[in-house]
Design brief:
Blueprint: H1 3-7, E1 14-17, H2 23-34, E2 38-43, H3 47-59, E3 64-68, H4 74-87, E4 93-96, H5 111-139, E5 142-147, H6 150-154, H7 160-180, E6 185-190, H8 198-201, H9 218-230, E7 238-239
Parallel strand pairs: 1-2, 1-4, 2-3, 4-5, 5-6, 6-7
The structure holds NADP nicotinamide-adenine-dinucleotide phosphate.
Length: about 250
Amino acid sequence: MSTTSIERPLDGRVALVTGASRGIGRAVAIALARQGARVAVNYVQNAQAAAEACAAIAAEGGRAVAVQADVSLAADVARLVAETRRQLGDVAILVNNAGIARLQSIEQATEDDWDAVIAANLKSVFLVTQAVLPAMRAGGWGRIVNLSSTAAQVGGIVGPHYAASKAGILGLTHFYASRLAGEGITVNAVAPGLIATDMGDGLGATAARIPVGRFGTAEEVADVVAMLARNGYLTGQTVSPNGGMYPT
Ligand code: NAP
């Protein structure tokens, strides 16, 4: 093995990171590019932020393209995967990161809120995974990392729809991991605690109940995702960078 491949273990791989224009997804895209992957930076509306994330990767000598798509819509997902293939090649690393958080009480959450959160956070994971799996299976190598949350494990502070969507992601992770383990494809979940991003900062929470004493950073979560992208023997697991909030 050459020095280059040790330093850049994802050389030659194509990664698709959903919701990579901001926050955790942006940090994941940069971390994967630093390990050699060519990265599709998906976003839904913030084209400028997505372009800036791609520019940050290019400034370090990496390759990234921004692709707009609402990952809760099957037609958009088909276009996202086709466009990624056209510009970079078949997706070998998928990070299902895109998500929304509607901070709502038991009384506030409506049926429309439920449908919107489940579609953006959970249905999207099913849609994008289904869309990339044929090429991954044909290639006999793949890494799928799904962003869950402490909310899946303890309920959390956002709302019933959010907790259910993030717990559903764990079920999807277990299903795909068990079916695909023999095909060179690992599927894992990452369940962060409170992370300093637009979403995390918007929840009105303080660090008082976090044992480590502070919010996590997007880069600390990205570091875990990058490890899962490299490792071929860890599958069906949930890794929880949460500052000790919920020891697992
Ligand atoms: P964020 O700062 O709010 O960023 C959300 C990202 O998702 C943006 O890039 C946004 O794109 C994109 N997005 C939203 N809906 C989309 C859709 N329908 N289609 C495509 N892209 C979409 O969020 P974050 O804090 O980085 O969170 C990332 C993931 O980690 C989420 O799944 C979240 O639930 C999970 N998480 C976060 C925390 C936390 O404390 N921050 C804790 C646990 C888990 P635009 O820029 O175009 O809007």
